[in-house]
Amino acid sequence: MKKRIYKQNCALALASDLIGERWTLLIIRGLLVRPMRYGELLSDLPGMGTNLLATRLKELERDGIICKQNASKTAPYCLSSVGETLEPVVLAMVRWSMTSFPQRQEADYFHNPDWDLVALKSLYQPLKAPVESITVQFDHPTWKAWVTVDQRAYTCGLGMSTEKTNLVWEGLIGSLQQFRENVTELTKKENQILEIFMATFIVPD
Q1: What pLDDT was estimated at residue 65?
Q2: What does the alpha-carbon distance between residue 64 and residue 54 come to, in Å, rounded to a whole number?
Q3: Residue 40's CATH number
Q4: What single DSSP character describes residue 75?
């Protein structure tokens, strides 16, 4: 375990020692979507220096929060079983931010649409989800991913879904706001499916 910064006999202070360093939670955010190699993480975190990323990865691996998928030097990093338990923490922070503060769209801010899969999951409400699964395929020219929701779980992945797809949305997750504004060209059935899908999530003010 890394040297304690706060030196307080408190669970919150210990947790902050482990994951409170700059960039650490953003590394975890990326690995919640998919395993990534060093270079992929670096691309996902513009502004983070190469040495700092290497340091953070070593610390997280040493503390048992991340691990390599296999023994190869070029194997991607992934969350360990302990690291995976951080998902509710990250989702709670994302949900708190989205529902408590105005979301700004700064033109010079980098945005990876992969992150929207995490943001959407943070707003997932199982009790408002459909009993039968609904899978929405996002088929944007520059990004493809899928999301499946039902009362059991929210699951997602990058690329094209290998399962039955109920609706193809030819845009990014962020463009679902168009549906809220009734600016879609979907069929009546597709609109009904999307309405059920969207009702599964908290709507930030």
Answers
A1: 97
A2: 15
A3: 1.10.10.10
A4: P
Distance of CA 106 to the CA centre of its chain: 20
Look at residue 137 and give its three-state secondary structure. strand
Say if residue 63 is in the same domain as residue 134: no
Rg (CA), the chain: 19
Scanning the chain, the segments in alpha helix (DSSP H) are 11-19, 24-33, 38-44, 50-62, 81-84, 87-100, 114-122, 177-180, 188-198
What is the tally of structural domains in the chain? 2
pLDDT tens-digit map of 5-51: 888 999 999 999 999 999 999 999 999 999 999 999 999 999 999 99
pTM: 0.92
Number of C-alpha atoms within 13 angstroms, CB side, residue 63? 21
Q: Which residues contact 7 (CB under 8 A, 6 or more apart)?
A: 13
Q: Is residue 55 domain-shared with residue 125, that is, in the same domain?
A: no
Amino acid at 174: G
pLDDT in tens, 104-154: 777 788 999 999 999 999 999 999 999 999 999 999 999 999 999 999 999
Boundaries of domain holding 145 = 112-198
60 vs 13: CA distance, rounded Å: 17
**Do 80 and 127 reside in the same domain of the chain?**
no
